[in-house]
Amino acid sequence: MITLGDKQFEKYLSATDVQHAVNGVAVRIGDDFKDKNPVFLVVLNGAFFFAADLIKRFTYPCELSFIKVASYEGLHSSGDISTVMGAEPSLKGRHVIVVEDIVDSGNTIEAIIEILNQEQVASYAIASLFYKPEAYLKSFPLDYVGMEIEDRFIVGYGLDYNGLGRNLKDIYILKAQQMTNLVLFGPPGAGKGTQAALIKDRYELVHISTGDVFRYNMKNNTELGQAAKAYMDRGDLVPDSLTIDMLRAEVEKNPQAKGFIFDGFPRTEAQAAALDELLESMNSSVSGCVALEVDTEILVERLLERGKTSGRADDQDESKIRNRFDEYNEKTAVLKDYYRKQDKFHAVDGVGSIDEITARLTAVIDQL
Ligand code: IMP
Ligand code: MG
Fold it and tell me: 51-54 long-range CB contacts below 8 Å, 24 or more apart?
């Protein structure tokens, strides 16, 4: 793993993989352009390594020119392209091979094609070392692609993150796990609320309690709240997709969050899969599922004790209390399995002082 600025990246492709891709492109371009004296129009800055390796392998007459356009800031294309440096000398009547490091949205290529049309070139072809088909928004065909990659941010071999990483020989990909996303389980009375509040402050996480999110949406009569209410009024269960939409809205309200504590969700395997999908769409994932475990007998005692002073009817009836635990154990069993299979399940002993339990939780979270 490497760090560039504020982001972490992990190895994605080796220098050898890259050379294979370059070779493939070089061979095809050689076949197509050997007697055309093409101009390689290199898109700066990112394509300089690719261009160097590619053009060395083109053993026929050719010329070289550079163009510089700017659209990227950090991890995202801004959409506005400006020409920083134009092609010299004129490309009029020439066969031009655009050499690009990576095609993402296609905005850059579109701008370059426009320039080539204005220049009245004889023909043009696009060669890009990398191409992200899922991100591509245009319909111009890409004539030579070294390698298709998933829609994630990469650096190395000329490609940068805020200017850094161009000198790496291998290709690195932005680490998915920039956030700490916790799924928190705990039976009633285990001290989940208390611990969630402490953990949230300590790691600067956003605590998303599904119950609170529902109440908020219903109370404020949001579109999602209205939709949920319609199901409830009919006596139907709110579908997972709607719950996920509410969570997504909550997550999107906090784009700067270092992560989230999901509390009261997921309740089913389908919901757990939906949560994975939501986080994946943000290039992230569940870091771990942490369950506060307290022996049922101790909890029954605790709740009965609490019932004496709280006056909560559901805390006074032992059989009702036991029912709540049974329900909890049944519901969480499949989720424990779900996260265990991914090696993400962590049981934490929930008996002790608040500080002791927090210390156990942070020991687990720091390892994630
Ligand atoms: P497009 O205009 O969205 O197609 O983006 C093309 C330009 O954005 C490339 O020339 C790169 O400079 C930059 N770019 C796109 N994706 C990445 C990436 O994953 N890593 C680094 N730069 C990228
Ligand atoms: Mg570029």
Answer: 51/99, 53/19, 53/22, 53/26, 54/22, 54/25, 54/26, 54/29, 54/99, 54/127
The structure tokens 């890009």 sit at 128
Tell me whether residue 138 is one of the annotated catalytic residues: no
The rounded Å distance from CA 111 to ligand 1 centre is: 13
Pick the CATH number of 182-365 from 2.60.40.10, 1.20.1110.10, 3.40.50.300, 3.90.960.10: 3.40.50.300
Are the beta carbons of 291 and 346 closer than 8 angstroms? yes
Amino acid at 346: H
Which of 7, 94, 192, 302 is catalytic? The answer is 192
Helices and strands, number each (H, E), in the chain: 11, 15
Q: Which atom of ligand 1 is nearest to the CA of 43?
A: 10
Model confidence pLDDT, tens digit, residues 239-297: 988 999 999 999 888 877 889 999 989 988 999 999 999 998 887 899 999 999 999 89
CATH level 2 (architecture), domain 2-174: 3-Layer(aba) Sandwich (3.40)
